[in-house]
Design brief:
Elements (H helix, E strand, L loop, with lengths): L3 E6 L4 H12 L4 E8 L3 H11 L3 E4 L2 H14 L4 E4 L1 H8 L6 E4 L7 H9 L3 E4 L2 H18 L2 E4 L2 H9 L14 E8 L17 H4 L9 H9 L1 H14 L6 E5 L5 E7 L4 E5 L5 H9 L13 H4 L5 E2 L6 H12 L3 H17 L8 H12 L7 H21 L7
Parallel strand pairs: 1-2, 1-5, 2-3, 3-4, 5-6, 6-7, 8-9
Antiparallel strand pairs: 8-10, 9-12, 10-11
Helix pairs in contact: 2-3, 4-5, 5-6, 6-10, 6-14, 9-14, 10-13, 13-15, 14-15, 14-16, 15-16
The structure holds nicotinamide-adenine-dinucleotide and magnesium ion (MG).
């Protein structure tokens, strides 16, 4: 049984906490070298007390200072680092075998990239990083012989259903005809269209099946999450968007399926709890316990399927468009989405303003060829400026 040392990027978030739950269940197998968070001092401090990492990173400098004081008072031997560069440092440490990439959004790109450059096993939850940097990221994974294992539940399910010798980064597995990417449809699958503009952040964050961070919860409600996942799947499994079919499956029991040329369809089923894909990616190719309960098919009783509704969820179409445009378009779309979602959470725009902000940003920013990571960072920064201006030009909602 191999022993692995981990860096958990974004350890105080929903995925980070679930990852540490798996670590705590298997102290004979995993140890923690570094934990990182943006500014949640108390959350990171508690994790340091429990897991004794060598390093703790707080991106925010004031938060880092507060954490450092608390750590020194308790006599822990954790070194506190601050700033975004420190995220990159702890992702590439020599003593680290696995990096859980669970920072939300573009902020996770550079540390995830560093983990790839250093040939680590990357447990990829931070789909935005891959959507932004697809080609470069996959090239880096191959060049450094890194192991990229998907944690996103759908992609982890697909990975489990791929031929045994397949690894993300290889070309499309032989015999694969298409993939069926399941989606719950989020909280507004049935909401009458005219009510969409009254949707509040609290309603959007109340996902029917999954308990997640606020950004991905809004993405699930707009279905931009599924759009990001279509692109993520294309990169991971060497596919074109025409090989990916989105299937609404409100129960979230089948986490996605692979359809083979001989007519076989393989799917992975389980309760909607992220500890299953996290434990799978951490232990692969072995299996370990995750604390997730058993699936009782009799209590599930039925599984439903519907095609995706592109009128109801315009963000899904925007993601297809961005993939087809290529170049920096997906980076621009991702940045505009992050700005628009934050503006919605801050009650500065309506739910129905999110897609138009992204669409107009894509029009304004166009797409450039990508040769280096700097091109992506530049496209990200420019798109954020455009999207922020568009947000400011949008009429502030009075009803929220
Ligand atoms: P979250 O908001 O709960 O946690 C985000 C983490 O990132 C926190 O630790 C936070 O401190 C850190 N962070 C936030 N902004 C940062 C910044 N600017 N710099 C450095 N660190 C920062 O998010 P989550 O739900 O855990 O999602 C994390 C990632 O995993 C996202 O990319 C999401 O799409 C993906 N994902 C999540 C789920 C889920 O069930 N939560 C499922 C699939 C994929
Ligand atoms: Mg998912």
């Amino acid at each position: 049984m191999p022993f692995s040392a981990l860096t958990v990027l974004g350890s105080t978030g929903s995925i980070g906490v679930s990852t540490l739950d798996i670590v705590a269940r298997h102290p004979d197998r995993y140890s923690v070298v570094a934990l990182t968070a943006n500014q949640d001092v108390d959350g990171l401090f508690k994790q340091c007390q429990q897991f004794h990492p060598a390093y703790a990173v707080m991106v925010d400098a004031d938060a880092a200072q507060q954490l450092d004081e608390k750590i020194r008072q308790t006599g822990l031997e954790t070194t506190v680092l601050s700033g975004a560069e420190a995220l990159v440092t702890v992702a590439g440490l020599e003593q680290v075998d696995m990096v859980m990439a669970a920072i939300v959004g573009a902020a996770g790109l550079l540390p995830a990239f560093e983990a790839a450059r250093c040939g680590k096993r990357i447990l990829l939850a931070n789909k935005e990083a891959l959507v932004m940097s697809g080609h470069l990221f996959m090239d880096q994974v191959r060049a450094s012989n890194a192991e990229l294992l998907p944690v996103d539940s759908e992609h982890n399910a697909l990975f489990q259903c791929m031929p045994e010798d397949f690894l993300p980064g290889r070309e499309k597995a032989s015999g694969v005809e298409k993939i069926l990417l399941t989606a719950s449809g989020g909280p507004f699958r049935m909401l009458p269209l005219e009510q969409f503009e009254l949707v509040t952040p609290e309603q959007a964050c109340a996902h029917p099946n999954w308990d997640m961070g606020r950004k991905i919860s809004v993405d699930s409600a707009t279905m931009m999450n599924k759009g990001l996942e279509v692109i993520e799947a294309c990169w991971l499994f060497g596919l074109e968007v025409s090989d990916v079919q989105v299937v609404l499956h409100p129960q979230s029991i089948i986490h996605s399926m692979v359809q083979y040329t001989d007519g076989s369809v393989l799917g992975e089923l389980g309760l909607p709890d992220m500890r299953t894909p996290i434990a799978h990616a951490m232990a692969w190719p072995e299996r370990i316990t995750s604390g997730v309960g058993h699936l009782d098919l009799f209590s599930v009783a039925r599984l439903d399927f519907q095609p995706a509704d592109f009128e109801r969820f315009p963000c899904l179409s925007l993601a297809y468009q961005a993939w087809q445009t290529g170049g920096t378009a997906a980076t621009v779309m991702n940045a505009a989405n992050e700005v628009a979602v934050q503006a919605f959470l801050d009650k500065n725009i309506r739910f129905t303003d999110i897609a138009p902000v992204i669409e107009k940003t894509l029009e304004q920013c166009g797409s450039d060829d990508v040769h280096a990571i700097d091109t992506l960072l530049q496209a990200d920064a420019t798109a954020r400026l455009s999207a922020s201006e568009l947000v400011q030009q949008t009429e502030r909602p009075v009803l929220l």
